[in-house]
Design goal:
With 398 residues, the protein is mainly α. It folds into 2 domains: 213 residues, Glycosyltransferase; 139 residues, Glycosyltransferase, CATH 1.50.10. The protein is built from 17 helices and 4 strands.
């Protein structure tokens, strides 16, 4: 396994290879027109917009009251001994009940070990969620307190020399007694696809400066190089299930943010191959269907495809209406899911954890916008209170 010294040397190498990453100031998964419409509707007292804004502000206000927790705040150090190295425990791996020390850990597919969320996984998720809430609160209200706190979060995690995360995931989703780190851990940072949009939304010379933005782009450029060139990154890119799809969603967003347009176009075209490999002509997704949480994984993977299709709009490559050579398409995958979501069709496999479609409202709203109003969350048997306060009314207004 790579030592901390080797990992740091790798970071210096990829950093030296590319110094030209320049953010272009554009959004990848969010649209200025949608935010402008949301602000207009907010001024008119549109019920869903008002409720969604209130929910965002409640969350952002909670963020303001919380201390910033850097990646260096760890209970358990990675094998490198460097607290700035990202370190997490495999999501579905648990202490071995048959050994005194719990080693080696054993896998329980679909069952989340709380240790995973207590490691850097939980911190990164909170970082991405909080920066998203704060940046949207700034856009909706113009209150600089939200933007300043978001800027402080980003500086702590990516610019501060004492606390900034090292741009690699060598020790992600480690398995005690088995592996110091695995390629599967790359999915842990999939939230970075929205984090870079958050940084773009708070661009203001008095809050988050162009210099700050370029430093973030330089960090993301080094991280992008690691994702592209490391053994773990190459393995994840070759994956033909949700791991490969989320890899593409993350890397495409970072490529766009860093201004690497040729790479972004290549990744968008590569997504066509993923559609052909993973989605059958009837819309089913066999690689996800066989999991212990089939409905969850089919929906999760399709959401990743929707994220890719949204970002790919910036490359002028239309994945929304693309049909693969074997007949698969994003629309067919959405229509295949719909009868299960509407309870018109019994799910053939047992979900070991309750399926919560409310976690994927952005998927259904975008399906309604691109394909058919039957996907509109207001028309589906969802928790309508959750629908009414969802960010979809801000990010993807109907």
């Amino acid at each position: 396994m790579a030592t901390g010294r080797v990992a740091r040397a790798w970071c210096r190498l990829v950093g030296a290879r590319r110094r030209d990453d320049k953010p272009d100031g554009k959004l990848n998964l969010t649209r200025h027109a949608s935010l402008q419409l949301a602000r207009h509707r907010l001024g008119q007292g549109h019920p869903d917009t008002v409720a969604a804004t209130r929910s965002i502000l409640d969350g952002a206000d909670r963020c303001l009251k919380k201390p910033i927790v850097p990646i260096t705040n760890k209970k358990r150090l990675p094998p490198s001994g460097d607290a700035r190295d990202y370190f997490s425990i495999g999501t579905y791996w648990w202490p071995n009940p048959d050994t005194a020390d719990g080693l080696p850990y054993v896998r329980r597919d679909g069952q989340i070990n709380p240790e995973a969320m207590e490691s850097d996984t939980g911190k990164v998720r909170r970082l991405c969620r909080d920066s998203r809430l704060l940046s949207l609160a700034w856009v909706l209200t113009g209150n600089a307190h939200y933007a300043r706190h978001c800027a402080a979060l980003l500086r702590t995690w990516f610019i501060d020399s004492d606390h900034a995360m090292n741009p690699h995931l060598t020790y992600a989703q480690s398995v005690p007694g088995v592996s110091e780190g695995r390629s599967y851990g790359i999915i842990d940072t999939r939230g970075f696809r929205y984090l870079v949009d958050s940084a773009t939304l708070i661009l203001d010379e008095g809050i988050w400066t162009s210099e700050d933005h370029e430093q973030l782009a330089a960090w993301m450029g080094r991280f992008l190089d690691w994702l592209l060139d490391s053994r773990a990154g190459r393995k994840e890119r070759a994956s033909k299930n949700n791991h490969g799809t989320w890899y593409s969603a993350q890397v495409l967003s970072l490529a766009l943010f860093c201004g690497r347009k040729k790479l972004a176009s290549k990744l968008a075209l590569e997504a066509r191959e993923r559609i052909d490999e993973q989605i059958e002509s009837d819309g089913s997704q066999p690689a996800e269907f066989g999991r212990s949480r089939p409905l969850t994984y089919c929906t999760m993977n399709l959401r990743a495809f929707f994220e890719i299709a949204t970002a790919a709009e910036r490359t002028d490559i239309d994945l929304w209406m693309y049909q693969a050579p074997r007949g698969g398409s994003l629309e067919k995958a959405a229509r295949w899911l719909l009868p299960y979501v509407k309870h018109e069709k019994g799910w053939p496999k047992r979900e070991i954890i309750e399926y919560k479609p409310e976690n994927y409202l952005s998927l259904f709203r975008r399906a309604a916008l691109h394909y058919d109003a039957v996907f509109e969350p207001r028309r589906l048997p969802f928790d309508q209170q959750a629908v009414g306060t969802s960010e979809i009314h801000i990010l993807y207004p109907d």
